[in-house]
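This part of the workshop introduces the protein records we will be handling. To make this concrete, we reproduce a full record directly below:
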Amino acid sequence: MGFKTFRQRTPPPDVPVRAPQVRPIARQPQWTLTEYICAAGPHDRPFEERHDRVSMALVTAGTFRYRTTTGEALLYPGAFLLGNAGTCYECGHEHSRGDRCLALHIDREWFAEMAAGSSASTRCEFRTAMLPASPNLALSALILQGASSQNARVASEEAIIAVIESVVRVVATNHRPARRPRPAATRRMAAALDFIDEHFRGDISLDELSAHVAMSKYHFLRTFTHVTGMTPHQYVLCRRLQAAAQALRNSRSPVARVALDQGFNDLSTFNQAFRRVMGVTPSRYRSAP
């Protein structure tokens, strides 16, 4: 692969690689949508693979370290893994256990055509290893998660194209490759992300988060933002909105009940945040086909 050896402690070579489970969801000549379910942990060897096609994968659960030719990053729910066709990559769980991803694998030529059309750029390769979770990608994340549901109809090809175009546009405005996080930062931020995912519906304070990973508030805030690409508050808000959107589609609970269940203190705040990110009101989002 040409990668330098990690400083982190890794299992000996005789420890087998724990391959992820693979669940095909949809297939077209130019692309496939697949769910990967990984149960690897700190005692499993990192696995090395090759991106045969252009890859963009939404992390839906868990955290893991991802390294490829464009950089190294800590992946977490809501973030997108990016991979160029023909490049090698490595995933590891030195500081966590298990993850789930929804991966779009796209033909190189088709992706190049779409990249040129949606970003007005002739570049058709990623220059960064990941995109952080953000409001700009919230709808794309929901489309992919909706397509993965056993009870939902597979997303139409137009919707998949919209997801790809959305990711391409965000990539085009993000010119800075992700910097490689230090091992200590990766370990602590993985613990912080896991804590948030378990408690994001509650009132999480910066004091509580920084104490959980034994860091000062200032150093934690800087490190979290550097590693994830967003502040803790922004990440919590994204997780709440994502969970609320899924609850609106999958339940008949009143909008006010959904807002309270996902950690919003009042309906007005929820409505404003939801409309700003999703582009429609919660009620209209629920009734949309």
